[in-house]
Design goal:
Layout lengths: L4 E6 L2 E10 L2 E8 L7 E6 L3 H12 L10 E5 L4 E5 L6 H7 L4 H20 L2 E2 L8 E3 L8 E3 L6 E2 L28 H15 L28 H10 L10 H5 L2 H4 L4 H6 L7 E5 L2 E2 L8 H4 L3 E4 L2
Antiparallel strand pairs: 1-2, 2-3, 3-4, 4-6, 5-6, 7-10, 8-9, 11-12, 11-13
Helix pairs in contact: 3-4, 4-5
Length: 304
């Protein structure tokens, strides 16, 4: 791809914009030309000033959370948003390469639900949670995951908050009901993401380009899954929002505490074990009943 440089200036310094690729995806980076730190920002081009202002306003309310993408600058004149650059790619990139063991999925779910609880506490519904909107600052560190793309996010009581929004396959059934919906649409999306991770990018209710049909949740026989993992998926993928847990309740599910699957996971460690999590250069003692597992940062390293 031919490099195209565009000069721009922001409060934090002078930048040049560079058209480049992240994997096979064309992206634009703003690279600082002063200050000596080679700081890079991801540039998102929007269609209208209204959309630019709306997304910037949402992002202003979530600044500072370690698992939510940071907006550094925006320009309503050029309809551009300038984010911290997530050089580790997104969760879909990893999902395209390999399946996730339960232990790895638990780490993703813990991090994602922690961020989602924060959003919901301040009244923000994301409405488009999916693997491609979950990015990594460091491709080797699962704790660096951040929620990104707040383009259709909204405050719960804002005008248009109950419009049909999101990505088919990840949307909750009530989005299509015309009767309104709440925060729990995001919880359903988290359930779909968990299902995709555990079952190698398979969707729980058919193709990604279709809405959820009222069919029973099925767990493929070719992937061993603990009873607690099944229970977690069943609860988050509950069609009735009244019976579906909140993000806070989902974050307290016993499966995420990792109390019962450890021995079974070790016994079947050869399955879906393309990747292992390590802390530093030593293998992790995955004693799920110890408090250490939840508090440490783990890195993802490919087997050779």
């Amino acid at each position: 791809m031919e490099e195209e440089w565009v000069y721009c200036e922001m409060p934090s310094g002078k930048y040049c914009e560079l058209e480049t690729l992240l994997g096979t995806t064309p992206i634009t980076l703003a690279i600082r030309m002063s200050g000596g730190d080679n700081k890079q920002l991801f540039v998102k081009q929007l269609e209208t000033q209204e959309k630019t202002t709306k997304e910037a306003e949402i992002l202003a309310h979530v600044m500072g959370h370690p698992n939510v993408i940071t907006l550094h600058h925006h320009s309503t004149e050029t309809c551009k948003l300038y984010f911290e650059y997530a050089s580790g790619g997104d969760l879909q990139d990893l999902l395209d390469e390999h399946g996730f063991a339960e232990s790895h999925t638990i780490l993703v779910m813990r991090t994602l639900l922690k961020a989602l609880c924060f959003l919901h506490k301040i009244g923000i519904v994301h409405r488009d949670l999916k693997p491609s909107n979950l990015v990594f600052m460091d491709s080797t560190d699962i704790s660096s995951l951040k929620i990104a793309d707040f383009g259709i996010s909204t405050f719960l009581n804002a005008p248009g908050a109950n419009s049909t929004s999101g990505t088919r396959g990840y949307q909750a059934p009530e989005v299509y009901s015309g009767k309104g919906y709440g925060m729990k649409v995001d919880v359903f999306s988290v359930g779909v993401i968990a299902y995709c991770l555990l079952f190698s990018d398979r969707m729980p209710f058919g193709k990604e380009d279709s809405g959820p049909s009222l069919i029973p949740l099925v767990f493929p026989d070719d992937v061993p899954l603990s009873p607690l993992a099944r229970d977690f998926l069943s609860k988050l993928l509950e069609f009735d929002p009244e019976k579906r847990p909140t993000a806070e309740e989902a974050s307290r599910h016993p499966w995420l505490a990792g109390l019962s699957f450890h021995r079974e996971q070790q016994r079947k460690s050869s399955y879906h074990d393309t990747y292992h999590f390590f802390k530093g250069s030593k293998g992790v003692d995955m004693n799920m009943e110890s408090g250490d597992f939840a508090s440490q940062n783990y890195v993802l390293r490919k087997n050779k």
